[in-house]
Amino acid sequence: MNPRFAFVAAPLLVLAYGVIRILDGLDGSRGPGLAWTTGHLAFLAALALFVPIFWEMRRMANRDALSTVSAVMGTVGVLAASAQFVIDIVVGFLSADHAAMGVLFDRIQAVPGVSLAIYDGGPYLFYLGQLALVVQLAVIGRVKAWTPVLVLFDLVLPIVDRDFIPLGAIFLLVSFISLARGIAPTAEPVAAHAARRAVTHA
Fold this sequence. Notes:
This protein is an all-alpha fold. The chain has helices spanning 3-24, 34-60, 65-94, 98-109, 114-120, 122-139, 147-160, 165-181, 190-200. The protein is globular and about 50 Å long. The model is unreliable at 186-202 (pLDDT under 50). The chain crosses the membrane at residues 34-54, 66-87, 124-143, 164-184.
């Protein structure tokens, strides 16, 4: 996968999730239904793209110990957040209405360790790892100083109000476009380069 694609597609998928989430709540409740499932699938796809994004950011940061720890932390956060969204989707399928979803969520979160690992703790590693990588890239001059500021806006806005997720995603898109521009072009395979030279000089 072209890493530049991931840097653009991930924020757009988060944007899609945020917009669908708002539309799903227009009737006064969210889920279950098509909007609930579609929005969660969009965010799951975004989370999957964040894994190569984190490791590309580690490469851009020269693969040092700090960037490696941040990438690992972010990846663990992706796994925790993905588990949460998979649970949300399954609960949506199993529930007849929003009230029934609440009952199932309570049962799941009552399982020892689940609340901390999947809801209250684990997913925050995703955000901390992401911010740590961007800050490190800014410190070493690989991205502009304002890039981590935009990423921070993306992380803080949903805490203020989750309806701000689309706005945060736009900030994230702008910052990630800046990051994507810093990705070195993929090196041409040696064999292909040699073959072309042979044809040129024949």
